[in-house]
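Hi L., both proteins are below.
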Amino acid sequence: MNTASERLGLRYHRPEDNASIFKTYTGDLGSAKYLARQPHIDVAQTERMLTKVKRL
C-alpha cells in the first residue's frame, strides 16, 4: 500500500529497508531512550520485530 500527498509519501517497509531502520531507529540508543524498549543489538532483531508487526 502506498499513500502520498504533495509533501509526504508513506509505504509499507520492504526487506531492503531493514538495515536502515536498524541504524536510524531500532538500534539507536538516542531513539530508544524515548521508548519502552531497549535498542536492538543487530539487524536480525529488527527483522524479527518487523516480521511480527507485519502479521498484525
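That was the first. Here is the second:
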Amino acid sequence: MSKPTVSPGSNVRNYFNNEEDFRMRKVFLALGIISLSLLAISPCWSSGQQPGPAAVEEPTEPSEINVLLMASATGTGLNDMLADFESKNPMVNVKELTYAPAAGYDTKVELELAAGGGAYDVIWATGRSYSRWALSEWIVELGPIINDPKWTDAASFNFEDFLGGSLRFLDVDGKLYALPILNTTQVMFYRGDIFEKYGIPKPPDTWDELMEVAKKIHTPEVGAIGMRGSRVRGGVMWPFPQVLYGFGGRIVKDFPKDMHPVFDSPEAIKAAEYYAELLQKYGYKGTLSAKFPDVSLAMQQGKMAILIDGFPGVGPYEDPEKSTVAGKLRFHYVPGGPAGRWPAFGAHGLAITAGSQNKQAGWEFIKWTLSTERQLRAGLEKSEMALTRKSVLIHPDYIKKFNYADGELMRVLAEQFDKQVRSFYRPMTAEWGEVEDVTALAMSKVLAGEQDAASALREANKELYEIYKEAGYYKE
C-alpha cells in the first residue's frame, strides 16, 4: 500500500460560507445545544500548490491495521461496531483494537512513537500531548490526505461538518495532524434530592459558595464533592486550572506571548490552598488520589453529592442499570472566582502514526470512526456525548436521548460553550506533558498534606522555568 507524501507546507485558510454559517448557527441556538464559538464553519486545511499524497494503489490482498485508543467515555463501543467497518472496507482487517488505561497512556505512546511507531497504525492523540507528537513528526499531517480526492471523497467525508472549535484546538502551526474524536468541557453535576433535603435553593455560582454548600451537606457516607486529585496526566491538572484561573492565577504569565511561569503567584497559592481544603475536608473518600474512572464510579455508587468533571461521563450516571443516582442529577456551570469562570475545554483526536506501513487503511478506519453514521450510533447505542460532528448534535434522536433534567444539561452546555469557554485552558505547547507532570506532583503533595502550597508551588515554578528555558522561550 502506498505511503502518503506528507507536505510540510500546508497552510490553514479560514473561510466562512455565509449562508451555511448563518443557517447552522440559527439551528443550534434554537435547539440550545452548542456554542457560537464551536459552530463557526471549520477552517479549511489546504495543501495549495504542495504535492499531496502519492497515488493510491488498489490493494490486491487485505491490509491489517492495529489501533490504540485511550480508555475514555468516548469510543468504547468501537469493538461492537467493527463488523460494520469491515463490511464496508473488505480489504482492511482490524487485527487489534486496544484500549489502554488513561493513566500512563501518553508515556506508553511516546515510547512507541519515538522508537518508530510501527506497532500501531492509528492512535488516540490526547489533547495534552498532541502538539508534541505533531512537532516531533511522529504522526502524519492530514491536510494533504483530506484534500486529495484519491484519498478522500469530499462530499461523503463532509469535513465542514466537524465542530470548528475542536479543529482549531488541534491546529499546530497551521497544520492538522489528527481529527477530533472527543470534544469536552466540565460541568457541575449535583444531586437535586440532597440539595432539597438540606434546603439549598440553587447550586453554587462561585467557589466560595461551593465551599459553604459543601460544609452543609458533607457526611462520612456521602461526601459533598468529588474532583480529580491524582498526579497522573489527565488527573488533577484537568480540573484544577478552573480554580487557578478563577482565583486570578496562571501557569505562565501571558500565554503564548510570555511563557515565564507564575505558578507560585499569591493567587495561585490561594487557589491551591482552596482546592486542598475543599477536597480534604469535604471530598468523598478517595477523591484526593482519584482519576476519571474513580470519580465516575463513585458518582454512580452515590458516594458524592457534587461532581465537577467532564460532561461526557453523564451517560453511566443516568443509566439506571449502572447508577444509583439515575434521575436524581441536576446540572450547573463550573463555579467562578474573583477573576470569573474558566471552564475546562479540550479535544482529543485520531491520528496516523508516521511509522505505519498501512496509512491508507488507517485513514479508512479514521473516516469510518468519525463519520456521522458511526458517531450517531455511538450516541444512541453507547450513550456517548462528546461527539464532534454538528450533524450528530442536531439529530432529533440524539436530542431526545440526552434530554437530561428536561434539557438542563444541554442548556448549561450551550451557555458555557458560548459565553464562558476562554480562548485557551492550558498552555498546550510541546512541553505540556512535562509541565503537567511538575504541576500535578506539586498539587498532589499539597492535597496529601506533605507540603504547604507556597513551598510546593515555588519548587514547581523553578522547574517550569527550566523547562521553558531549555525549550528556547527565553535565554536569561
